[in-house]
Amino acid sequence: MMMPMTSDQQWNLAWSKLNALKSNLPSEIDQGHVQEYHDALKLLHEASGQDITPFEIPPDRLRPAIIGVQRRGRSGRGGGVQYHPSKKVCDGNFFHRQLDALYGYFQSLAPNDKQTSEKKYGF
User: Fold this and answer.
1) Considering the domain boundaries, does residue 14 fall inside one?
2) Which among 18, 37, 77, 110 counts the fewest CB atoms within 10 Å?
């Protein structure tokens, strides 16, 4: 039987996941990475009680992944973009901004003591 996690355990797990995600972001951020981010946000919310919804990735920020581009022919016909039928991706700049904003927000809540801040928030 698994015991429920304490808020400290949720807090530590959330920041571990966020730190790992931030340190290992691929060039293309797909819906799997967004879900991983949202799972960590949920843990962070449960542990802290803070409203983290401003840091979520809205569904409309996920777009179909481009898998190919065809040039137009000499006649001007043809060409276009091919999209993956089910895979969606998020704009990397937007994802990074959301992640950085989350870190900045929690840093602003931290006490001025740098050592305490680094220990508590993982940075």
Assistant:
1) no
2) 77
In a domain, 118, yes or no: no
| Residue 95 domain flag | yes
Helices and strands (H and E) in the chain: how many: 4, 3
Per-residue pLDDT tens listing for the chain (123 residues): 666 778 889 899 999 999 999 999 999 999 999 999 999 999 999 999 999 999 999 999 999 887 776 666 566 666 676 777 788 999 999 999 999 999 999 999 877 655 444 555 555
Q: Which domain holds residue 41?
A: 27-51+58-110
Cβ–Cβ under 8 Å, residues 31 and 88: yes
